Amino acid sequence: MKTVCLISCVKRKKPGCHPAKDLYDSTLFNYHYQYAMEVLGVEEEDIYIISAEHGLISSSAQTCNYDKTLRGMPKEERKEWASMVSTQLQETLDLENSNIVILAGVIYYEYLLDNIPHYELPEALNGLPIGKRLGKLKSLVLEAREQHS
Questions:
Q1: Is the pTM of this model over 0.70?
Q2: β-strand partners of 99
Q3: Residue 129 — pLDDT band, cuts 50, 70, 90?
């Protein structure tokens, strides 16, 4: 089974247009990305961003700065967004043969999980507040680097 990683977008973005993996300008996003590649061993083409503005985007897709978030969005709009992302996932991936690792807050996946047959919310990170999550991500990435050197 192929491992695919979904990483949520973040508020801080670089000005202009960039590949999605370079647009998001936050320590949390960067550590999620490093965790996907270095701890999980996911190939870059199998990392996707779940964007409040665009839904599912590949990490290499040219994406321009935007100002939209799921936070504060009414429940029905979040459900519509999740429905769009579910359709994009079905069109993009072989969901029956993919294990989807989700690196995002609950607001990003709460209405997606019913449409993903095989998913994982990393236990080591689940439910941690941002500060503790950053610390845990950093230690897991450093540990993976040490094992590979």
A1: yes
A2: 3
A3: confident
pLDDT digits (tens, 9 = 90+) for 33-67: 999 999 999 999 999 999 999 999 999 999 999 99
> Contact, 45 vs 60, CB < 8 A?
yes
- 118 neighbors 99 (Cβ within 8 angstroms): yes
Among candidate residues 37, 45, 8, the one with its CA nearest the CA of residue 24: 8
3-state DSSP assignment of residue 103: strand
Give just the sign of the alpha carbon dihedral 3, 53, 71, 86.
negative
Tokens at 14, concatenated: 């670089």
Give start and end residues of each alpha helix (H) in the chain: 20-23, 27-34, 75-92, 106-109, 130-148
Confidence check: pLDDT of 149 > 80: no
Rounded to a whole number of angstroms, the CA Rg of the chain reads: 15
CA 149 – CA 146 distance, rounded (Å): 5
Write down the pLDDT at residue 132.
92
